[in-house]
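This part of the workshop introduces the protein records we will be handling. An example says more than a description, so a record of this kind follows.
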Amino acid sequence: MKHPVAERGFSLVEIIITIVIIAIALTAAISGWGTIARHSSDVMWQTRISYLGQAYLEEILSRPYDELTPLGGSPACSPCTPQGSFGPDGGEVRSTFDDVDDYHGLSESAVGLFNELVTSGGIASYRGYQVDVSVTYAGSQVGITNELVKQVTVTVTPPQNTGQSPVNFSALRGNY
């Protein structure tokens, strides 16, 4: 005589517990995916910010130290341009800036960097970026005569819809 095989399924409690566990796991997975999707473009924004900061610093630091510094940089200017006189000299525009401190107070849309390269008004992917430049004497910060070193600070502000904060880039330029 054969014994009947008892078939056993899942109870209602086991099914409900399984559904709750799956729901919790899916909620966590979808939440994580949303965070990843929201921040997937951060690297692109940060790369553009870094490129702009570097490009502006390179342009500024390639200029002579001061109006009063002789060609070749030696001997150092004495006296140098007073800090209160930093900024464009009479009639100068960005394309004619000829020394580091002419850039002091420059505030422009980042496409200004590219306007000379692209006649259509700059490179579209850099629209919305703002660049501000400050130049100060910094010799006392490094323990030498104040007028021998200028600190250039470039602040790049990304478009407001990126969620990124402004970033400062700074470099020292010696009178040599």
User: Anything to note?
Assistant: Residues 45-174 form one domain. The chain has one domain: 45-174. The beta strands are 107-109, 130-137, 149-157, 167-174.
